[in-house]
Design a protein that fits this description.
Length: 545
């Protein structure tokens, strides 16, 4: 999609285009320039709205706007005639200003008309806290279907007002836009921390807690509260119960603590959202050569996304490689493609570029060793055409024990090259550095490393041992960058945290004096398996929302 100028947004509205479309939102998410222009345009329209669009429209609103537009047209025509007759050059910018005024008037007229003929209206989209860059695809879809609910919560105490105007709910999550206004009337975005004395719980019709809301962040316009359900809730109504007893604490960097009561409760109706929820049972099972079985369970198409659920189970032999709790550290890599092999979405791939649509993902431990339940919610998946699920591989934390001995004093002159289980590393320097802390600087040892990792670094555990068998756990510091041109052969590149390209570091407590011999040990490896070969065609024909 090409970049837009401010006047392009106005033209889009005048031509009936949806400026909150998925394509537009995806473009704005990727393009900072358009995002800034869109924000400026939205602010301008909101200024017009405050002046021209009251909360309650008078009966003669449409007639008044039509007369205003007619007056503007006549005024513009008179200006053009006068300029032509007197051969006076039209003032620079006059036509543009008139067009802006006309566009705003047309926008207001369109809003007034939509008030009577559509839900939600464009006015709702302009005003909504969930609009623009604050909204993901699920929220925009809920808004388009008229499923944004309005609790109209206002709670006042100690000069502060807590306000909730909008909420969206379906069987997968609840999203709430919460605002807090201070004594000065301004929105206070950073004065509530949701822990200890402040909680917002979601309950089902039987009063059971099914979720707790957390501050999703990503916007300064409101507290972006979200609760995600590990399993789709089976209910027509939910209750949101908030307990807010304290404003300000160390986490919010507030110097003043205010105790009070801003408790609230309201109900959410899921009936309409549930009518638009469709479940497609899936039949498909595959066992990899190294002992992981994948069983697809179901696709649930909801208002706010499409949820894929499946189980994985490790064999007895695979569990031996991941004793204790190690087997719980897992990650799957898969993608969707159309029947022609074109990528739709990828998950946990190192292929660049990639198509990513995951909104929510989660895993829960099963009722026996090796069993894991997985769920991924995507912004969208094809609905009127079949597509394929492709298993690209998986990662599991396993015991390792690979070691290398080195002289830290000579690394810079004599780097050590390693190849461990398809990981290529170079140890190329060692130094003692100052690490700033809240208690002042402290000394740390820094082992500089570079290389490419096939295995999963986040599951790895590394230690350094001295000649007297003292052992120090290392902490990785640097940037992990994916690199690859296909779904199976990508690597993670160990790179710098700064622009001057300092190597990746293993940090651990300072060794003073620096010894002549150290041993680097990888005790746990996030082993990657890509010897999988499984594709399964999926279809959801007739399930359109």
């Amino acid at each position: 999609m090409k970049c837009l100028k401010p006047e392009d947004f106005e033209q889009a509205v005048l031509k009936g285009a949806d400026v909150s479309s998925v394509n537009m939102q995806d473009h704005l998410a990727d393009c900072e320039g358009c995002r800034n222009r869109y924000t400026e345009w939205m602010e301008e329209q909101e200024n017009w709205m405050r002046q021209l669009y009251p909360n309650v429209l008078p009966a003669a609103f449409t007639e008044g706007v039509m007369l205003s537009i007619s007056s503007e047209e006549e005024l513009f025509k008179d200006s053009v005639v006068t300029a032509a007759e007197t051969s006076v050059k039209e003032p620079k910018g006059l036509k543009k200003r008139w067009k802006l005024a006309a566009a705003a008037a047309a926008l207001v007229l369109f809003m007034g008309t939509a008030t009577f003929f559509s839900a939600p209206t464009l006015a709702d989209i302009v005003r909504s806290l969930f609009a623009g860059n604050n909204a993901d695809t699920g929220l925009l879809k809920a808004q388009k279907l008229g499923l944004v609910q309005h609790p109209n919560i206002e709670v006042k105490d100690k000069g502060y007002m807590l306000k909730i105007d909008e909420a969206v709910a379906d069987s997968t999550r609840v999203v709430v836009a919460l605002q807090l206004f201070g004594p000065d009337g301004k929105h206070d975005r950073h004065n509530i921390a949701f822990y200890n004395k402040n909680h917002i719980f979601i309950k089902d019709e039987k009063g059971n807690k099914v979720g707790e809301m957390y501050d999703y962040g990503s916007t300064n316009d409101f507290y972006y509260m979200m609760a995600i359900f590990p399993e789709p809730v089976q209910t027509d109504h939910l209750t949101v119960e908030g307990t807010i007893e304290q404003l300000g604490n160390a986490q919010t960097n507030a110097s003043i603590i205010t105790q009070g009561n801003w408790d609230f409760t309201f109900n959410l109706d899921l009936k309409e959202a549930n009518k638009r929820t469709h479940i497609t049972p899936l039949q498909g099972e595959y066992t990899s050569p190294d002992g992981m079985t994948v069983r697809l369970k179901r696709l649930t198409r909801m208002v706010q996304g499409v949820r894929l659920e499946f189980d994985t189970e490790l064999s007895g032999e695979a569990l031996k490689r991941s004793p204790g709790e190690l087997w719980k550290e897992q990650k799957l890599s898969f993608h969707f493609e159309d029947l022609a092999g074109n990528e739709i979405h990828s998950v946990n791939t190192r292929k660049m570029p990639m198509m990513d649509s995951v909104m929510i993902d989660g895993k829960t431990i099963g009722n026996k060793p090796g069993l894991m339940h997985w769920s991924y919610t995507f912004k969208e998946l094809p609905i009127d055409s079949p597509y394929k699920f492709v298993l690209d591989g998986y990662f599991v934390a396993e015991t390792d024990g690979t070691t290398v001995e080195f002289n830290p004093r000579r690394l810079k002159e004599e780097p050590i090259k390693l190849e461990w289980k398809e990981d290529r590393l170079v140890l190329n320097d060692f130094m003692t550095v100052n690490q700033p802390t809240s208690d002042g600087d402290k000394l740390e040892s820094s082992l500089h490393v570079k290389g490419d990792l096939r295995n999963e670094f986040s599951f790895d555990k590394w230690v350094v041992r001295t000649a007297d068998k003292s052992e120090f756990t290392t902490q990785g510091r640097g940037i992990l960058s994916p690199k690859g041109d296909n779904w199976k052969d990508g690597v993670t590149v160990l790179s710098s945290t700064t622009e001057n390209y300092k190597p990746f570091e293993f940090r651990f407590p300072a060794l003073t004096p620096v010894p002549d011999k150290l041993i680097l040990v990888r005790t746990v490896v996030g082993k990657q398996y890509t010897n999988t070969d499984w594709k399964l065609e999926l279809s959801e024909k007739g399930k359109s929302n």
